[in-house]
Write a structure and sequence with these properties.
The complex is a heterodimer of chains A (about 425) and B (about 750).
Chain A: E1 8-12, H1 16-27, E2 31-35, H2 58-70, E3 75-78, E4 81-89, E5 92-99, H3 113-117, E6 121-123, E7 132-134, E8 136-137, E9 149-150, H4 152-156, H5 160-166, E10 179-185, E11 187-190, E12 194-196, E13 213-215, H6 216-223, E14 244-251, H7 266-280, E15 285-290, H8 300-307, E16 312-316, E17 319-325, E18 330-337, E19 342-348, E20 350-355, E21 357-359, E22 382-384, E23 387-389, H9 399-418
Parallel strand pairs in A: 1-2, 1-11, 2-3, 11-23, 13-20, 14-15, 14-20, 15-16
Antiparallel strand pairs in A: 4-5, 5-10, 6-7, 8-9, 12-21, 17-18, 18-19, 22-23
Helix pairs in contact in A: 1-9, 6-7
Chain B: E1 5-10, H1 15-18, H2 21-31, E2 36-40, H3 46-58, E3 63-68, E4 84-89, H4 91-95, H5 103-121, E5 139-142, H6 146-157, E6 162-165, E7 180-181, E8 190-191, H7 194-203, E9 207-210, E10 213-219, E11 225-231, E12 234-240, E13 242-245, E14 249-251, E15 269-271, H8 272-278, E16 295-299, H9 317-331, E17 336-341, H10 351-359, E18 363-366, E19 371-375, E20 378-385, E21 390-394, E22 399-402, E23 406-408, E24 414-415, E25 439-440, E26 478-480, H11 490-512, E27 528-529, H12 539-543, E28 549-551, E29 557-559, H13 569-573, E30 579-580, H14 586-594, E31 608-613, H15 617-626, E32 635-640, H16 648-656, E33 661-666, H17 680-697, E34 705-709, H18 718-732
Parallel strand pairs in B: 1-2, 1-3, 3-4, 5-6, 5-13, 6-9, 13-26, 15-22, 16-17, 16-22, 17-18, 31-32, 31-33, 33-34
Antiparallel strand pairs in B: 7-8, 10-11, 11-12, 14-23, 19-20, 20-21, 24-25, 27-30, 28-29
Helix pairs in contact in B: 2-5, 5-14, 6-7, 6-11, 9-10, 14-16
The chains are: A alpha/beta (about 425), B alpha/beta (about 750).
């Protein structure tokens, strides 16, 4: 086999598995380029409040990872970047990366003056649109790289110049355009992750129409201090503290009409979220509507612990329909208890839909032919010689499995470089 | 290196507006005697950096103190080869969180500058560790099952030499007994291709295989492991770089199961493991008389998810049972096949195989407590079917298969007991160090003072406690993979073997360059011991979270730097203070404390020393500044690599200087510990409890010393925590040692 033409590795996706693949390969001594389409690294885990089962903050591990990144000159990062074309073969890939404009350059010191000067607001993407932020913003408190972003809508508006003038360091460049960088790399790790399944497609659940029906990823933002409510779990319709909450598991998962596969982590995610609620509301009544509780391995201990909570009820049955009481914005759940074969109409103040993970490759495939399974996941870690699939690109995975995957992917990428 | 101090003060980002820069510069030139002191309105831009580079090139500046933003930002800009660099944070932790143009804010900035210079003056450039012996990059894989074979092959494909040790006469582990498997894309049964993997390993020129062999002894450390492998009465010696532990699992002993499950009452009640073993190549028949099987019940979670047996779930038994059920159905579509389950756990695309089993006609009964009853020759399962709401009787069964669980090979053996002091030997002052859970399982046989095997996390699994870092075991250079680490199926085990192989490779690559591994990857410093003053108290050898220090018969520590993670717990533990790093030492922190200007009690300006863990507390403090929140101006923060590096002399230094209180800010310890160095936070807490007695003797209130756990995301709570401590100190009154 020919020696690799170039000795560098391109990792596409800076979420948990991509970040791990990049760091592990760089620490093993290889040149790595890491690209992410967001203006910050960390992907979806940065938007979580805590991980199960230790209930630790994502940033605890991310901070260490970013420190490793900072200390490693072999790892170079491009944010707001997307790979638009891939051609060639193992050891000799030609890739084109589109760098989308941040409108802020490397002189940014994060002093916040642009944000103070700006009046235009946008939906906050980090909080799944649950609140608004200024259009000149730092993506979130612990954002890495710590550099501000200007929303394109601001740049086109009349306020743009005012915001630019507010910057004392000449860090705002309104003329930035998308740029294309062409590179040669030896191996590629594809780790573009997942997006939450669109709950609006679950037409009997009223997501989008009923304000107090939210998804599990939105609950993470509600519980987080840098979320839309400073960490207080409140009903979106009226800001009231919910006294009764329902979790609907497998919302759009294990369902041939939506995502036929199981997303592996939503059971634990809901169990974890019951602890968020319990911490704030000692008396709130929580019901979990489930098919099977998938708490594998030692996560069983966490499940056991949540079962001890007297105010958490496990109800075996799939909710058929959710209706709303227009006066109170409370919800009514129509569900059959399969163990007693009785129909129930259960009123609750808030509903959390445990929606699944849809791989991003199902909508944005790799720009070169690889094998996918029926659901858009890349069919195997060895996507094709010289391209490795990692993390939720391959199968729904939690944090630990994603890091494990990223580590394995780093090795396979290295093998592509050194095969004799 | 000739030392010449140069101080740079950035006046951007509001610093210039909030502070009297001229006054601050005088602190540098007069108090700190800095021969060079400059300020610049935007130090991180090209001109600012050029200013510094000019001084390095033309003025001989070698010790740089940059008073500006946090060291967590602009790291790529402020990067100067061959110089000692100290980043003093006067932005996030002074100007952004304190009142501008205020006397107290000015005092804070001036103190920080003094502390920064005191720190830089005690920092030296690292000198990477090179052991005397030659360093090896070869990888040892212990265990020749699926995971071990994969780890060996993956390492070889990356260009490394491997030695593989397997205790059985043949390679393959448990998978040898598995004829068919279920894996991606989980649509149907697949033939087990283990044979190909075994052949690939045997043919691979980079891999030396020992079967019917065991590891008799491992001594040394990463890149200098000395491994003795015993095979057929003779011993082979290898000098190796890193280890992958893939020793696999044992099935739970079925004789220990609840009698309700009927194991032992009939030869036709078997375990899932026995199912595989019995039917590797032959069709499934009744064990008692080899009659073809027409009715089978699979009972899930046998002796698992049950604190009386195995508390955890073995993850794969649901899918394994479905596989076995489908195997029977494919052998005989008319057979009645029942799966009696509690929860059906087929995550991910495995859901497709659950669907397949249903399509093949397997019947599912959901019941939390089935019972196996033998009446004469009639083997029956009684189950309360949750979904039908009635009792179900599955009788005249030919076979009952109990899904028993997996126990790691490391869960067997006697508890390891650390060497106790001999008869008559004086017991040194006891410190209750949290003990590692190690069983003498005769797998690695490490010649380590803290035990011969990897410490178990829970239930005997030598797993990492870090969700984000699944391979970080407690012994550097030794990585667990496969079912010894956690119960897993073949698909996962293939990845795990590759992942652990990478960590092993990374370890040898970093170590040969004199660098530490995770979490201080790339660190070129290492602990140096001034042995002349050692009193053999054994604190360092016992407290090291990674077992990196051996001990000789006299109790002298024998440091093994390649096993070291550079956490500095040993430095904190040593009462004689003989341990130091080139850029981090007891003296350095002591010097920083002593450089703080402590106003006398009439000024009514208390002083609080905050010792902050750099991994979580320090970033949280930065976030308070980023958010422009504020806390009292008495606080002076010193960063520690880990709270475990707390040396109690610093408490003495602080209080004898008249500082009113010491506040330790670090991560959570206990069951769900967060400490990136495992025990650091806990050890600091234990050491502090000893200090409280001393304080009482000195007639100082024990309230003056406090430990608070904080996570990196708790920055919203930090101002209140610091302010409450300040209020308490005001109640307690000024430190009587002020002015002495």
């Amino acid at each position: 086999m020919a020696k690799a033409v170039t000795q560098s590795i391109l990792v596409v996706g800076g979420g948990m598995s991509g970040l791990s693949a990049a760091l592990e390969a760089a620490e093993a001594g290889h040149e790595v380029y890491l690209v992410d389409k967001n203006p910050y690294l960390g992907g979806r885990v940065a938007q979580l409040h805590q991980y199960f089962p230790k209930l630790c903050p994502p940033y605890c591990g991310l901070e260490i990872n970013f420190r490793r990144l900072k200390n490693n000159p072999k790892l170079r990062v491009f944010t707001l970047a997307e790979v638009t074309s891939v051609s060639g073969g193992e050891g000799d890939w030609d890739v084109s990366i589109q760098l989308n404009p941040r409108y802020v350059n490397e002189k940014c010191t994060a002093c916040n003056k642009c944000n103070e000067a700006c009046t235009m607001e946008i939906d906050n993407p980090f909080n799944y649109g649950m609140n608004k932020i200024k259009a000149a913003y730092l993506p979130h408190d612990l954002a890495f790289p710590m550099r501000y972003v200007l929303d394109p809508v601001l740049v086109k508006s009349s306020e743009a110049k005012k915001v630019q003038d507010a910057c004392p360091y000449d860090a705002i460049d309104l003329d930035m355009c998308p740029q294309t960088v062409n590179m040669k790399v030896g191996a590629i790790v594809w780790a573009t992750g997942w997006k939450p399944y669109d709950a609006a497609k679950l037409d009997t659940y009223g997501f989008g129409a009923y304000p107090n029906v939210i998804t599990n990823v939105m609950m993470e933002r509600l519980a987080a201090f840098n979320g839309p409510t400073q960490g207080k779990i409140l009903r979106p319709s009226d800001g009231k503290a919910p006294e009764t909450i329902a979790f609907i598991q497998c919302a759009g998962s294990r369902d041939e009409n939506h995502l036929p596969f199981c997303s592996s982590i939503c059971c634990l995610a809901s169990l974890k979220q019951t602890t968020y609620i319990r911490e704030q509301y000692p008396d709130a009544k929580i019901t979990i509507f489930f098919i099977d509780i998938r708490a594998t391995d030692r996560l069983e201990d966490f499940y056991r612990k949540v079962k001890e909570d007297q105010n958490v009820q496990f109800f075996k049955g799939k909710v058929a329909k959710i209706e709303q009481d227009a006066a109170t914005n409370n919800l009514i759940l129509r569900v059959e208890d399969t163990t007693t074969m009785t129909l129930h109409e259960i009123p609750v103040e808030m509903v959390v839909l445990a929606t699944g993970m849809q791989p991003n490759t199902s909508e944005s495939p790799v720009p070169i032919a690889v094998q996918y399974d029926d659901y858009g996941f890349i069919a195997s870690m060895a996507a094709r010689p010289g391209i490795v699939a990692s993390g939720c690109t391959r199968t729904p995975a939690g944090v630990s499995e994603s890091v494990q995957d990223g580590t394995a992917a780093a090795l396979k990428a290295i093998q592509s470089l050194v095969r004799r | 290196m000739e030392r010449k101090l140069a101080v740079y003060i950035c006046t951007g980002c509001g610093i210039g507006e909030a502070l009297d820069i001229e006054q601050l510069s005088k602190v540098a030139t007069k108090d700190c005697k800095a021969p060079i002191c400059r300020n610049h309105p935007n130090l991180c831009n090209k001109d600012g950096v050029q200013l510094i580079n000019n001084d390095i090139a033309n003025e001989g500046a070698t010790v740089l103190v940059i008073a500006a933003c946090s060291p967590r930002v602009m790291y790529d800009v402020f990067n100067f080869d061959g110089c000692v660099l100290e980043r003093t944070n006067i932005r996030e932790q002074v100007v952004w969180c304190q009142k501008p143009k205020d006397e107290d804010t000015q005092m804070m900035a001036e103190d920080y500058l003094r502390m920064g210079v005191a720190k830089a003056n005690k920092m030296e450039l690292p000198d990477p560790y090179q052991p005397e012996q030659e360093m090896s990059k070869d990888i040892l894989v212990v265990g020749g099952g699926l995971t071990g074979l994969t780890a060996a092959l993956e390492a070889s494909r990356a260009g490394y030499q491997v030695v593989l040790v397997e205790k059985e006469a043949e390679l393959g582990g448990f998978q040898r007994t598995v004829s068919q498997k279920v894996t991606f894309p989980y649509k149907e049964l697949k033939a087990n291709d283990l044979g190909q993997l075994v052949e690939a390993v045997q043919k691979d020129g980079n891999i030396k295989v020992y079967t019917g062999a065991k590891v008799e002894k491992i001594s040394g450390g990463p890149c200098v492991f000395d491994v003795s492998i015993k095979q057929n009465g003779s011993t082979a010696e290898h000098h190796m770089g890193a280890v992958v532990l893939a020793a696999g699992w044992q099935p739970y002993d079925p004789t220990k199961l609840d009698s309700k499950l009927g194991y032992g009452t009939s030869p036709n009640v078997i375990t899932n493991v026995q199912f595989e073993e019995m039917f590797v190549s032959a069709p499934v028949t009744r064990p008692s008389d080899s009659v073809p099987v027409k009715a089978v019940a699979f009972l899930q979670c046998a002796g698992q998810r049950d604190p009386e047996h195995l508390s955890y779930c073995s993850s794969v038994c649901c899918l394994a049972a479905l596989k076995q059920a489908v195997q029977i159905k494919q052998q005989d579509p008319e057979a009645n096949v029942f799966v009696v389950y509690k929860e059906m756990r087929t995550p991910g695309q495995g859901e497709d195989f659950y669907r397949k089993a249903q399509q093949e006609g397997v019947i599912f009964v959901r019941c939390q407590s089935p019972e196996v009853i033998l009446r004469g020759n009639n083997l029956t399962v009684e189950a309360d079917d949750e979904l039908m709401g009635e009792k179900v009787l599955l009788d005249n069964l030919d076979l009952v298969v109990l899904a028993t669980g997996m126990m790691p090979a490391t869960a067997f053996g006697e508890d390891f007991k650390a060497p106790q002091p001999k008869e008559g030997e004086e017991k040194k002052e006891e410190i209750q160090v949290p003990a590692d859970a190690i069983l003498v399982s005769d797998i690695l046989n490490l010649e380590y003072r803290l035990g011969p095997e990897l410490p178990g996390l829970q239930y005997g699994f030598p797993d990492s406690h870090y969700i984000c870092f699944p391979y970080e075991s407690r012994r550097t250079g030794i990585y667990a993979a496969g079912c010894v680490r956690r119960p897993m199926g073949t698909a996962n085990a293939l990845e795990d073997g590759a992942g652990a192989a990478l960590k092993a490779i990374q370890c040898v690559e970093l170590t040969t360059r004199g660098m530490a591994v995770h979490p201080r990857a790339g660190d070129l410093t290492y602990p140096e011991f001034f042995m002349q003053r050692c009193t053999q108290c054994k604190r360092c050898t016992e407290e090291c979270p990674f077992g990196a220090i051996n001990e000789d018969e006299k109790g002298n520590p024998l440091p093994q730097p390649t096993r070291c993670r550079r956490c500095s717990v040993c430095m904190g533990a040593c009462p004689e203070r003989i341990i130091s790093f080139k850029n981090y030492s007891v003296e350095m922190i002591g010097g920083m404390i002593k450089s703080i200007n402590v106003p006398d009690e009439y000024d009514e300006k208390p002083r609080i020393l905050v010792l902050a863990c750099e991994n979580d507390a320090y970033p949280a403090l930065d976030m308070v500044g980023l958010r422009r929140q504020t806390y009292n101006a008495w606080v002076r923060v010193i960063t520690l690599r880990c709270l475990g590096s707390l040396n109690l002399v610093w408490i003495a230094d602080t209080l004898s200087k008249g500082i009113d209180g010491v506040f330790l800010l670090g991560c959570r310890h206990g069951d769900n510990y967060q400490c990136h160095f495992v025990k650091g936070s806990e050890l600091a807490d234990i050491r502090l409890s000893k200090v409280k007695e001393t304080l009482e003797r000195l007639v100082l209130e024990s309230d003056r010393v406090r430990f608070e756990t904080i996570s990196i995301a708790d920055y919203d709570k930090l101002p209140a925590l610091l302010d409450q401590f300040a209020e308490r100190l005001v109640e307690v009154g000024p430190n009587p040692y002020k002015g002495y």
